[in-house]
Amino acid sequence: MDAQGLPKKRRVIVDYFDRIVKRPARSSGPSAVADKTMGPSAILRTTPVPGLTVLEDFITAPEEQEILDFLDEPSKCTWRTDLGRRTMHFGGTYCLLTPKGTISQSLKLKVLEAPTMPDEILGLSQRFIDLGVFPDNQRPQYCIVNEYTGNLGISAHTENFQFGEPVVGLSLLSSCPIRFHELTEPFDGSVRSGKARKAERTGRRVDVEMPGRSLLIMRGDSRWKWQHEIVRNAKGRGIGWKRVSLTFRYKDEHEHSHLTT
Predict the structure, then answer these.
(1) Over the stretch 120-149, which tens digit does the pLDDT of each residue have?
(2) 56-64: long-range contacts at Cβ-Cβ below 8 A with a sequence spacing of 24 or more?
(3) Pick the residue with more confidence: 193 or 36?
(4) Which runs of consecutive H residues, i.e. helices, occur in the chain?
(5) 3-state SS assignment for residue 20
(6) Count of CB atoms situated within 10 Å of the CB of 50
(7) What is the rounded average pLDDT of the residues 40-49?
(8) Least confident stretch, 191-195, 200-204, 246-250
(9) d(C-alpha 180, C-alpha 115), whole Å
(10) Which residue has the higher pLDDT, 181 or 84?
(11) Which of 53, 57, 120, 143 would bridge 70 by S-S if both were Cys, CB 3.0 to 4.6 A apart?
């Protein structure tokens, strides 16, 4: 009850975003906020990257295993292996790369239709809605799954600007640092096109640790004005190190472009 005797409104994650934006930056490092509406052990961490938060223990260990079992069930899921790492798509289309050495330029890319979001993944989408990560009218329609083992990583990039915000990543299994690079301005350039490496950086770099079962939420500058990467380096990973990530994105089908300044 509040001071007027009225029931208190249940807080969701976006309530914390509003408060965090107004809070002065701290030089001592990230802060943490816990709330029983997100589960007894869930912790929402702010980071030095503007607009970037990490929700630790977003799912339980049994839930994590259920997702991994589903992804590795051949009758339900198919991993693409044309990249250095195993990848999987749900929603929309994607380009399949042909093996190196292909002579014809016209055969280099093959566009395939990805399966729609399965029930096993839709449950996560509903949790996003319940916690206010995504508004109810912006349920994510796209999910890309990446598996990292050994010294595998991914080059610095921003998520394609045809998608909105937030962009959300669920990290499973081993803990992994994600490196963020601040840009001088928003830049929409993909790794595959080679444009991502042309983005002009300010020189500011931040490493954000992602424990297993945690959720990375990119809004504002962290979504549009910071590139992120996983450094290709086996140092510190140890034997059997493995990380699986699920990145969720929403696309406004009626919006043709995003204004970049």
Answers:
(1) 998 898 899 998 999 999 999 999 999 999
(2) 56/211, 56/213, 56/214, 57/213, 57/214, 58/127, 58/170, 58/213, 58/214, 58/215, 59/124, 59/170, 59/213, 60/213, 61/213, 63/213, 64/172, 64/173, 64/212, 64/213
(3) 193
(4) 13-22, 61-71, 119-131, 220-224
(5) helix
(6) 17
(7) 84
(8) 191-195
(9) 31
(10) 181
(11) 120
Share of the chain above pLDDT 70, in %: 75
Buried b (16+ CB within 10 A) or exposed e, 131-168: bbbbeeebebbbbbbbbbbeebbbebbbbebebbbbbb
Secondary structure of 72-91 in HEC code, one letter for each residue: CCCCCCCCECCCCCCEEEEC
Name, in order, each residue with C-beta under 8 angstroms of 240's C-beta and a sequence gap of 6 or more: none
The letter for the amino acid at 4 is: Q
- Rounded to a whole number of angstroms, the CA Rg of the chain reads 19
Specify whether the CB–CB gap between 211 and 56 falls below 8 A: yes
Q: What is the pTM of this model?
A: 0.79
